[in-house]
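User: I'm preparing a small set of examples for a lab meeting where we compare how different chains pack in three dimensions. I only have the primary sequence for this one, and I'd like the structure in token form so I can line it up with the others. Please keep the answer compact; I'll paste it straight into my notes.
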Amino acid sequence: MDFDSLTVEPIELRMISPSKFPVRYAGGEDTAAMADLKESIKRHGLLHPILVRPLEHGFEIVAGHRRFAACRSLHQRFISCRICEFGDREAFEIQISENLQRKTMDPLEEAEAYQRYVTEFGWGGVTDLSRRIGKSEEYVSHRMQLLRLPDSAKSHVTAKNMNVSQALELVGAPESAEEMAEDVVRNKLTVKQIRKLKAEMDEGTVARRRKDSKSRETQITKKGILTLKIALSRMDDLVDAAHGTDPYERAAMIEFLMDMRRRIHSMIDEAIRFEKNRPKRRV
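Assistant: Understood. Below is the structure token output for the 283-residue chain.
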């Protein structure tokens, strides 16, 4: 539907309420982006009217919550609106689409909106939703998988310390996703490195799972092994990078790095042997 063809009318802000199905987290009025929006409105007025739907008493915002919040904080009495009749489902879809176009939703806000549409409201499946908002089924389902992450990992996604591709690799990880998330952020691991680490951890999970696997001593050893594996993955990247260096120095550089890699690998084997054979207190 072409909303630009709708007549623009001024409506008192007190007659307008936020959506009862918000797709973004509350807050954010004091951000730099909000400050810029308020300055623009003060200088040029509201360039893009908000979209509302009529209620029995007053109106409800369908699109334009930030513009509404900016005008309210500027103590404006009226705001320019386009009015149109929408059902709950269509209003929710328009909210999602507008925020996707403006790129104002973070990945977890998207995930929660998709989850509510499919599960809480039961308005359709992933296939139906993806078609209505112009995204692929894979895109929608991948976003929804982010909700399976522990809160600490989610916080890294929200803070943009970890991107969606990295976060998705942690879903269903063989070890604690919380610990892995910290390692990903601290060591700036790539998706390739995360996958390699997961494969190595998955191979050793069954062998390492003993009665004392939750003991403090075992956790220390496991973290040491994990640290060495991360270093080994980093070394592989350096070896790859060395192939692009000056031919005169390349051979010596690669030989040095491969020697370092062998040492790290030897340390990993030694740490695994230590964990296997170390004295353990009888319970």
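A couple of notes for your slides: The CA atoms of residues 10 and 79 lie 5 Å apart. The radius of gyration is 27 Å.

User: Perfect, thanks.
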